[in-house]
Backbone:
């Protein structure tokens, strides 16, 4: 009897040991997911949202799809003036939703359809996990390492975004950088609208040039901006002519050469009154000539949403004296340098001293959408887009004359 009890005790002890081993083995930590390989899960999207942004759902919402590697993209891309990081997912170029929104000024907190660049309609779909641009459903992917919706990262097809926005692609052959500028899209110009275009140069009381009339005083400049705002005029860019119907009394303010006082004196006034302006930059001048705005200053103005940086050629020659090859160099080189500086492709060429010839008019449309003269009076959108007239605003232009320049706007 005693021997049987001992045997039973031993058996029980062995069973307890085996049970303990099984218990602790089952509690070993699971394998960790590599940082660049996060599972693509349908669980972070409701079934309806999945149908909206990626097509009809083929799996249950809780089913986990195979892991997909996110590979950094070697292509350097600049979208709307901002360098953006793209990646390759299963061979397709993608961009994170928040990165894309930041670059184009899309407010993701606002779930209602929004307008971008005056002509594009964009809206969130699928509880914010996807996008529709101009009626085009953009392919999207949602990633979540912890399978929690509030921890999801959403990526959109970069190529589909660019196509939906109609962005031209400009590739800098020297650097290999790809630029995508929504405002550089070709568009039809609505006809028959009067748009006064005003020509300025410097804005300063420090007159350092022999041509003193080019220097509009900051106090007069402020009075003119105040007049524009107080009398219901809309200061626009040439890019805005694509939706000119949105403006009752459109006017375009232009500043030739790209002087430093455009940054130190004019720019603060533009911000104070919320008025847009166009600055024509001599591409070879920044950082190389005295009194000219620096590349950093130009870039800051360009990204402000108030200043459009456009071309005043590369070296400011009289274009009427150039042959074909020299004309093409001035136009092409200026376009390349300004795109590098501002991050946006220019679409407007301002003729230095207002001079041009047949080569200018022949080559201009290959690189730009508009060509601007020095004077000529009122511009009407039915005119040749490469013979745009302007009114000259000098240091001696009084407010009465200034008001007369604007009076026909929108008619």
Residues:
């Amino acid at each position: 009897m005693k021997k049987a009890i001992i045997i039973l005790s031993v058996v029980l002890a062995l069973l307890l040991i085996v049970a303990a081993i099984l218990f602790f083995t089952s509690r070993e930590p699971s394998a960790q997911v590599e940082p660049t390989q996060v599972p693509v899960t349908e669980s972070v999207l409701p079934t309806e949202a999945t149908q909206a942004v990626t097509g009809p759902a083929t799996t249950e919402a809780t089913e986990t799809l195979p892991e997909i590697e996110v590979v950094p993209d070697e292509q350097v891309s600049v979208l709307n003036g901002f360098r953006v990081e793209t990646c390759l997912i299963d061979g397709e170029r993608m961009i994170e939703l928040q990165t894309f929104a930041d670059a184009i000024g899309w407010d993701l907190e606002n779930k209602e359809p929004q307008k971008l660049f005056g002509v594009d309609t964009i809206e969130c779909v699928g509880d914010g996990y996807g996008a529709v641009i101009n009626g085009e459903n953009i392919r999207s992917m949602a990633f979540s390492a912890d399978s929690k919706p509030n921890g999801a990262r959403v990526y959109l097809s970069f190529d589909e975004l660019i196509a939906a926005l109609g962005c031209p692609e400009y590739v800098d052959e020297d650097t290999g950088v790809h630029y995508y500028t929504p405002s550089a899209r070709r568009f039809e110009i609505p006809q028959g609208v009067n748009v006064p275009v005003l020509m300025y140069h410097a804005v300063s009381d420090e007159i350092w040039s022999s041509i003193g009339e080019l220097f509009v005083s900051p106090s007069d400049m402020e009075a003119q901006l105040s007049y524009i705002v107080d009398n219901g005029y809309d200061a626009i860019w040439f890019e805005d002519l694509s939706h000119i119907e949105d403006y009752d009394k459109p006017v375009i303010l232009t500043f030739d050469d790209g002087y430093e006082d455009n940054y130190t004196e004019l720019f603060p006034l533009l911000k104070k009154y919320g008025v847009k302006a166009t600055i024509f930059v001599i591409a070879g001048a920044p950082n190389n000539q005295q009194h000219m705005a620096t590349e950093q200053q130009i870039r800051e103005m360009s990204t402000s949403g108030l200043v459009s940086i456009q071309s005043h050629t590369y070296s400011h020659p009289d274009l009427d004296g150039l042959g074909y090859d020299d004309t093409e160099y001035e136009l092409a080189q200026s376009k390349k340098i300004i795109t590098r500086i501002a991050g946006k492709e220019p679409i407007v060429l301002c003729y230095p001293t207002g001079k041009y010839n047949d080569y200018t008019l022949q080559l201009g449309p290959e690189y730009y959408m508009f060509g601007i003269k020095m004077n000529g009076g009122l511009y009407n959108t039915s005119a040749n887009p490469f013979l745009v007239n302007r009114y000259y605003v000098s240091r001696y232009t009084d407010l009465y004359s200034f008001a007369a320049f604007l009076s026909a706007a929108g008619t």
In short: The domain at 186-406 is CATH 3.20.20.370 (TIM Barrel). Residues 131 and 138 are 6 Å apart (CA to CA).
